[in-house]
Specification:
The complex is a heterodimer of chains A (372) and B (269). Chain A is mostly helical. Chain A contains 14 helices and four strands. Chain B has one domain: 3-Layer(aba) Sandwich (Rossmann fold), CATH 3.40.50. In chain B, strands 6-7-8-3-9-10 form a six-stranded mixed beta sheet, sandwiched between helices. Chain B: This is Urea ABC transporter ATP-binding protein UrtD.
Chain lengths: 372, 269
C-alpha cells in the first residue's frame, strides 16, 4: 500500500465513523430525550439530514461511474428520479380511501382525469417488496438498454455526456404529460403511510433516517470493495486508456455497462429513500440542472475517492439550505462560482486539500509483499 | 442478473481455445493482398506477409510505409478494404474484434508506451494476466499462488521487482517500455507485435531489450517494428522492408541493406 492509500484510509475511516454517528445518534437522541430538550431533533431537521444523506448516496453513485470508470454522466438524476417514482407509486397505493376522492383503487390524479381503471404498469406497486424491486430494476433496466447501445457503438466523452443529458430531459418532458399516468406536473404526493406506519410521525422519520444512513454506509463499503477488486482496476484502466484495455482482451463496453448499471441502481435506491422523507416526487427531479448539480457535488468533494462525493454532497447541500434561506436568487451564482473555483484551484476537491494538509511521514517501502 | 446477460455475448463462445491455432503449415500469421485506404490515401497496398511460428521478424521502412497500419489490421483496430488475414490456418482475424484477437493470443506493444499510470507496476501486470476476462469473474478474481509466481517471474524478466508497488506513472520512459513488454508476456501470447521497443532507452537498456527479445523467439512469434538499424541488425534473422504500403523486399539484414531498391527508398526517396 502506498502513501496516498494510507491517508485515504484515514479519511475513509473518519467519514465512515461520522456517518455511523449521525445515523445512530440522531434517532437515539429522539428516542431518549423529551421533545423540549435541546438534544431532541425536530422532525424537520431529521428529514433534512436524511435528505442530505440520500444526496450523498446519489453523489457516491456518480463517483463510481465518473470517478472510476471515467464516464461523465450528466443524467444521473434520471435514475434517482425513477427510483423515487417507484417508491412514490407504492406510497400512492397506500393512501387507499383516504384520498380527496376516496377511491380505494385509483390515486386522486387519476380520478381527476376521469380514468376508470389503474394502468397496467401500476399493478403490483401496492406490494412493498415489488416496489423495492422496481426501485432497482427500473433505473437498472434503463441504464442497461441505454448503456448497451451507447457503449457498444463506442460513444464516449462529451458526446456520451450530452446524450445522458438529453435522456434525462426527455424523461422530464415525458413525465410532465398527464397521459403518462405518473401524476403529470404535480407528481406523486400526499403520502399517508409506509408499511402501515404514519409517514409524518417523528418515529418513522427517525427510522427513515436510520435506513438512509445504513444504506449509505452499506453502499460505501460495497463501492469500496468494488473499486479495490480487479474489476475496479479494470475500470480505472478504462478511464485512463480505454483502447489499451481492449488489447488486453477485456470487453471494455461490458465493463462500462456493469459500472453504469450498478451506479444507476444505487441512484435509484437514493431516490427511493429521498421520496418518503421529502413527501413528494415530481418531474422536476428529472431536470438536467439537478444532474449537473450532482457533478458539482462530486467535483467539490473530490472525484475518484468515494468519500469525497459524500463530503461534497453534504457540504454543497448544506450551503444550499443556508444560502437559499438568506438570498434565494444568489444560489445558482454561488454554485457556478464554486464549480469554477474548484476546477481552477483545487482539481482534487476538498479531499485533495485535506490530503495535502495531512501529509504522512515519507516512509516509502518499495519492496516487500504483494499489494492487497 | 441483468448484467450477467451482457457478459455472455458475441465472441465469448467462438473464441478458439489454446492450441487451436493451426500453424502446422509453418506460418502462424497470414496476410494476403491486404489493402487499407484512409480518405484516398493507400496506407496498405495489396500487402502480403507471412510470419512463421516462433520466428522473430523485423519490419522496417520509412515513415508512412504502413508499419503501424499493418499492426492495426492484425489486432482488429482497423478493418481492411480488401484482402484476408488469418491466424494459423483456420482463424479469420477479420471476423474478430480487438478483445477476441487479444484473447486468441495476439498481443501488442504500442509505439507510445501505454501502461496504466494510476495503477502500480504489479497491478498493471495483474490486469494483463491471461485469465477469464468477463465482468463477473473479474469482480471476484483472486490471484492464486501460481499466478503470483508468474507475476514475480515476469517482474524479474523485465528487471522491475523493486518497483512493483510503485505507480507505473512514476517509471522512467525506458522502464515503461519494459513494463509494457512484461504486460505482453503476462498474456502468454502466440504472437507479439512490438512497435518501437527501444525508443527512449539507454544504451544498456537497449542491449537488454535485444537479449530479452532474442530469448523469447521460438516460444513466441515476434514482429518488431524499429527504426534503429543497429538494433535491428543485432536481433534480426529476417527483415521485411515496407514501402508505400506493400512489401518491398525480404531477407537477411545484409541482403536487405545491399538491395539497390532499399537504398533508393531510404536515401534517394
Amino acid at each position: 500500500m502506498n502513501i496516498s492509500n494510507l491517508t485515504q484510509d484515514k479519511t475513509y475511516a473518519s467519514v465512515l465513523i461520522a456517518l455511523a454517528s449521525v445515523t445512530l445518534l440522531i434517532p437515539l437522541c429522539n428516542l431518549i430525550f423529551p421533545e423540549d430538550s435541546a438534544l431532541h431533533f425536530s422532525a424537520y431537521s431529521v428529514s433534512l439530514i436524511g435528505k442530505y444523506l440520500t444526496f450523498a448516496l446519489l453523489g457516491l453513485s456518480l463517483d463510481m461511474v465518473w470517478g472510476y470508470a471515467g464516464i461523465l454522466v450528466l443524467g444521473q438524476g434520471a435514475f434517482f428520479a425513477l427510483g423515487g417514482y417507484a417508491m412514490g407509486m407504492y406510497l400512492m397505493r397506500q393512501i387507499g380511501t383516504r384520498g380527496v376522492y376516496g377511491n380505494a383503487e385509483l390515486p386522486d390524479f387519476m380520478v381527476f382525469l376521469n380514468w376508470t381503471e389503474l394502468p397496467w404498469y401500476w399493478n403490483g406497486f401496492e406490494n412493498f417488496g415489488f416496489a423495492m424491486l422496481m426501485v432497482f430494476l427500473a433505473p437498472g433496466l434503463l441504464a442497461f438498454i441505454f448503456g448497451w447501445l451507447a457503449f457498444r457503438s463506442r460513444v464516449t466523452g462529451v458526446y456520451l455526456s450530452i446524450i445522458t443529458q438529453a435522456l434525462t430531459y426527455a424523461l422530464l418532458l415525458a413525465f410532465f404529460r398527464n397521459e403518462m399516468g405518473f401524476g403529470g406536473n404535480n407528481g406523486l404526493t400526499d403520502f399517508k403511510d409506509i408499511l402501515g406506519f404514519n409517514i409524518q410521525s417523528e418515529a418513522v422519520r427517525s427510522v427513515l433516517l436510520l435506513m438512509t444512513g445504513l444504506s449509505l454506509i452499506g453502499a460505501l463499503l460495497l463501492c469500496r470493495w468494488i473499486v479495490n477488486s480487479k474489476l475496479g482496476r479494470v475500470a480505472t484502466a478504462v478511464r485512463d486508456q480505454e483502447s489499451r484495455v481492449r488489447f488486453l482482451g477485456y470487453r471494455v463496453e461490458l465493463f462500462k455497462l456493469w459500472v453504469f448499471v450498478f451506479a444507476a441502481m444505487l441512484a435509484g435506491l437514493a431516490g427511493a429513500l429521498y421520496v418518503p422523507q421529502v413527501g413528494i416526487i415530481n418531474p422536476s427531479e428529472f431536470s438536467p440542472l439537478n444532474s449537473l448539480e450532482i457533478v458539482i457535488w462530486v467535483a467539490v468533494g473530490g472525484r475518484g475517492t468515494l468519500y469525497g462525493a459524500i463530503i461534497g454532497a453534504v457540504l454543497v447541500n448544506y450551503a444550499k439550505t443556508v444560502l437559499t434561506g438568506l438570498m434565494p436568487d444568489a444560489w445558482l451564482f454561488c454554485l457556478g462560482g464554486a464549480f469554477i473555483l474548484v476546477t481552477l484551484l483545487m482539481p482534487d476537491g476538498i479531499v485533495g486539500l485535506l490530503r495535502r494538509r495531512i501529509k504522512p511521514k515519507p516512509t516509502l517501502n518499495a519492496t516487500g509483499g504483494q499489494p492487497a | 442478473m441483468m448484467i450477467s446477460a451482457a457478459t455472455t455475448t458475441e465472441g465469448g463462445a467462438s473464441l478458439p481455445l489454446d492450441g487451436e491455432v493451426d500453424a502446422r503449415h509453418g506460418p502462424i500469421l497470414y496476410m494476403e493482398d491486404v489493402s487499407v485506404s484512409f480518405d484516398g490515401f493507400r496506407a496498405l497496398n495489396h500487402l502480403s506477409l507471412y510470419i512463421d511460428d516462433g520466428e522473430l521478424r523485423c519490419l522496417i521502412g520509412p515513415n508512412g510505409a504502413g508499419k503501424t497500419t499493418l499492426m492495426d489490421v492484425i489486432t482488429g483496430k482497423t478493418k481492411p478494404d480488401s484482402g484476408s488475414v488469418f491466424f494459423g490456418q483456420t482463424i479469420d482475424l477479420l471476423e474478430m474484434d480487438e478483445p477476441a484477437i487479444a484473447q486468441a493470443g495476439i498481443c501488442r506493444k504500442f509505439q507510445k508506451p501505454s501502461v496504466f499510470d494510476a495503477l502500480t507496476v504489479f497491478e498493471n501486470l495483474e490486469l494483463a494476466l491471461k485469465t477469464d476476462k468477463r465482468t463477473w469473474p473479474t469482480l471476484f478474481h483472486k490471484l492464486n499462488s501460481e499466478q503470483r509466481d508468474r507475476i514475480q517471474d515476469v517482474l524479474q524478466t523485465i528487471a522491475l521487482p523493486a518497483q512493483q508497488r510503485q505507480l507505473a506513472g512514476a517509471l522512467s520512459h525506458g522502464q515503461k517500455q519494459w513494463l509494457e513488454i512484461g504486460m505482453l508476456l503476462m498474456q502468454d501470447p502466440k504472437v507479439m507485435l512490438v512497435d518501437e521497443p527501444i525508443a527512449g532507452m539507454t544504451h544498456q537498456e537497449v542491449e537488454r531489450t535485444a537479449e530479452l527479445l532474442l530469448s523469447l523467439q521460438g516460444k513466441h512469434s515476434i514482429v518488431v517494428v524499429e527504426h534503429d538499424m543497429e538494433f535491428v541488425r543485432s536481433i534480426a534473422r529476417k527483415v521485411t522492408v515496407l514501402h508505400e504500403g506493400s512489401v518491398l523486399t525480404e531477407g537477411t539484414m545484409d541482403e536487405v541493406q545491399n538491395d539497390p531498391r532499399v537504398i533508393q527508398v531510404y536515401l534517394g526517396g
